[in-house]
């Protein structure tokens, strides 16, 4: 089931973030940077902001939260996060989260953008399958760590 993230989901969302970040980025982002990011981006305060100010949906099987999507709507829609626990990947949950999340995006938004770290081949392939196209590559300083980032964009046809 895909549903809105609720206040009581905080610990489960943080657990999914910690596990998926370790699994996805262990060879791309240093452990100290990953930990520092978790402390800021997945604080209770930031969780509450995401719930209030963006599209924030959870994938739940049984009573267990196994993934989530977060889409920020500004000038365009930015897919800020889409994570599914490793043992539930390749079972359609990412697709379900993406499809339902897209339904929540305002009809005025014509583009969706996602930032993918170079070397995250699984994410890059998933977004290509969704119709995203690479528009730029650049190096950014992420919490004092240089990362090579790919910007991918998708036209939203309504």
TrEMBL record:
Domain N-acetyltransferase: 1-157
Keyword field: Acyltransferase, Transferase
Transferase listed as a keyword: yes
SUPFAM superfamilies in alphabetical order: Acyl-CoA N-acyltransferases (Nat)
Pfam families: Acetyltransf_1
GO molecular function annotations of the record: acyltransferase activity, transferring groups other than amino-acyl groups
InterPro entries per record: Acyl_CoA_acyltransferase (IPR016181), Bact_Acetyltransf (IPR050832), GNAT_dom (IPR000182)
Classification via CDD domains: NAT_SF (cd04301)
Name the record gives this protein: N-acetyltransferase
Organism name: Marinococcus halophilus
Lineage: Bacteria, Bacillati, Bacillota, Bacilli, Bacillales
